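Let's sit down with a protein and look at its sequence and fold side by side. Please make up or recall a protein chain and show it to me in full. Label the sequence line and the structure token line clearly, so we can match residues to local backbone shapes. Go ahead whenever you are ready, and we will take it from there.
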Amino acid sequence: MSLYIVAFILSSLVGIEREFHNQPAGLRTHVILGVGACLASALSIAYSHDFSSPQFQSDPARIVAQVVSGVGFLGAGAIMRFGVNVKGITTASSL
């Protein structure tokens, strides 16, 4: 089974659960993030092997680290404060 299909299935399971509970980040959001992160990781690893040389070693974790920080930024945007109440913590952690 392809990695993209596995990412689609697993992220859609989380998205369906979030849709079931009427949360802002639902199926589409989780599928886009899951498959996008899988694609970025696969491209990072593939390009690292294809374009590295003995003189200039490449690090496949560099692109993946940027994906993690980008998804963290999206999660931080999902957290809202309403007076003394804070909403969106679970949505941010699921992203």
